[in-house]
């Protein structure tokens, strides 16, 4: 475009020069420029806003005091036996190598208290969680250097902690007006915590089948790479302790106070 304009200007100048030389009529040339459009003073911004959410009434997403749904899984002696065998192996290793951690395991929860927790949360616990609670109602957390933890850093929760944590997370989605499922669901039953806001859960939704999932307080549920059940997780833990092999990328180590640690393999 600039080249065409330059040629045109030169042609005009040539005509002017020719007119001057031949004494021809005066040639008057007026050059005009078009005003340029003003540039915008600011770049427009586009703001995406979600419609306001309406908080759910308390208990709308996480009802309490109803018959547990799904009902308690009963008649599964093989699952109970798997859990007890895994705990036998875990306790035997702790007794020999980390007695300070063994001492943090609490006494069993009574069958009555387990049923009361299920009724309070309106969700039936899977058979392996019931069997584990009937073995140990969580672990004492007064000293994190010795507390028993599932690999890599999840301390067993007591029934009281299970109920409290469940109520807290249910309250968050109800107040936020969220839909259940992505961040939290009433059928997620927490059983172990990392003391930083994240928990391991068993998924008691019909499609969950009691699988283990990790609930992050920042971005919700994750199931990829987690065991298919709590019984499997306990067996993996026992195997890692007995063999010295890693579990989920972490291996067992006894710290300076005689407690069990899980360190990167």
From TrEMBL:
Gene3D superfamilies: SMI1/KNR4-like (3.40.1580.10). Residues 52-71 have a biased composition (Pro residues). Keywords: Signal. Pfam families: SMI1_KNR4 (PF09346). Residues 1-23 form the signal peptide. SMART domains: SMI1_KNR4 (SM00860). Residues 108-236 form the Knr4/Smi1-like domain. InterPro entries: Knr4/Smi1-like_dom, Knr4/Smi1-like_sf, KNR4/SMI1_regulator. Residues 40-77 are annotated as: Disordered. This is Knr4/Smi1-like domain-containing protein. It comes from Phytohabitans rumicis.
């Amino acid at each position: 475009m600039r080249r065409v304009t330059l040629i045109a200007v030169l042609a005009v100048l040539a005509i002017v020069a020719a007119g001057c030389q031949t004494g021809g009529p005066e040639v008057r040339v007026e050059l005009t420029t078009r005003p340029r459009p003003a540039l915008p003073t600011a770049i427009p911004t586009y703001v995406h806003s979600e419609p306001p959410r309406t908080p759910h009434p308390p208990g709308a997403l996480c009802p309490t005091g109803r018959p547990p749904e799904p009902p308690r899984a009963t008649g599964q002696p093989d699952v109970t036996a798997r859990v007890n065998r895994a705990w036998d192996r875990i306790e035997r290793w702790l007794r020999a190598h980390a007695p300070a951690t063994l001492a943090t395991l609490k006494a069993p929860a009574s069958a009555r208290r387990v049923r009361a927790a299920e009724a309070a949360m309106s969700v039936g616990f899977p058979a392996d969680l019931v069997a584990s609670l009937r073995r140990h109602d969580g672990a004492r957390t007064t000293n994190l250097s010795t507390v028993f933890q599932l690999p890599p850093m999840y301390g067993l929760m007591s029934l009281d902690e299970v109920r409290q944590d469940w109520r807290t997370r249910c309250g968050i989605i109800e107040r936020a007006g969220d839909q259940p499922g992505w961040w939290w669901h009433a059928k997620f039953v927490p059983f172990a915590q990392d003391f930083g806001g994240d928990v391991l859960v068993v998924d008691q939704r019909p499609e969950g089948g009691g699988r283990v999932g990790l609930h992050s307080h920042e971005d919700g549920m994750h199931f990829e790479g987690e065991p298919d059940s709590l019984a499997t997780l306990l067996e993996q833990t026992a195997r890692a302790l007995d063999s010295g092999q890693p579990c989920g990328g972490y291996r067992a180590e006894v710290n300076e106070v005689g407690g069990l640690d899980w360190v990167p393999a």
